[in-house]
TrEMBL record:
Family label: Belongs to the Gfa family.
Domain of life: Eukaryota
GO MF annotation list: carbon-sulfur lyase activity; metal ion binding
The species this protein was found in: Adineta steineri
PROSITE patterns cross-referenced by the UniProt entry: CENP_V_GFA (PS51891)
Keywords (A to Z) from UniProt: Lyase, Metal-binding, Zinc
Protein name, per record: CENP-V/GFA domain-containing protein
Span of domain CENP-V/GFA: 6-130
TM region positions: none
InterPro entries reported for this sequence: CENP-V/GFA, Mss4-like_sf
This protein's record includes keyword Metal-binding: yes
Length: 156
């Protein structure tokens, strides 16, 4: 990899994740998901994700994988977390091969999200972020969505 990478660790330090700095600088790669399962697994209001090609992510250590079958969208999501401290590490949707959602909470740099998923489940008292593209649920595989995947570097 020629570009510089940023590395962070889970709370206990057993798992580290490296991503390209360039991805962190791109608002369109950063998103929030307010679905109930992201909320439950994160313990927060939403999952906070960096969407990028799996090949651009380097993980050291062995996260545990929870196969989440009971999702709002009906797709099975692999939720990776540290088996020691419980920190969320990433999510993968087998419907979008090659796409990874790295959980951004572990990083020092907290970039502004460019989009949000499942806004219908967002509490009324949470303000939306300026300029953020909002989806009521999970976008379907429309042409727009394919364009977005290509923009972030995932070929489908
Ligand atoms: Zn840990
Ligand atoms: Zn979600």
């Amino acid at each position: 990899m020629t570009s510089s990478t940023v590395t962070s660790k889970c709370l206990c330090g057993q798992i580290s994740v490296s991503v390209p700095q360039a991805a962190l600088n791109r608002t369109e790669c950063v998103g929030l998901c307010y679905c109930k399962n992201c909320r439950q697994s994160s313990g927060g209001l939403a999952s906070y994700n960096l969407y990028l090609p799996e090949k651009d992510v380097t993980i050291q250590g062995q996260p545990k994988i929870y196969e989440d079958k009971n999702t709002d969208s009906g797709t099975k999501i692999q939720r990776a977390f540290c088996g020691n401290c419980g920190s969320p590490i990433y999510g993968k949707n087998p419907g979008f091969v090659g796409l990874m959602a790295v959980r951004l909470g572990m990083f020092d740099e907290l970039p502004k999200p460019g989009m949000a998923l499942y806004c219908k489940r967002r509490p009324d008292w949470v303000k939306s972020v300026d300029g953020m593209q909002e989806n009521e649920i999970m976008p379907t595989m429309t042409e727009d969505f394919k364009v977005w995947l290509r923009t972030i570097g995932v070929s489908i």
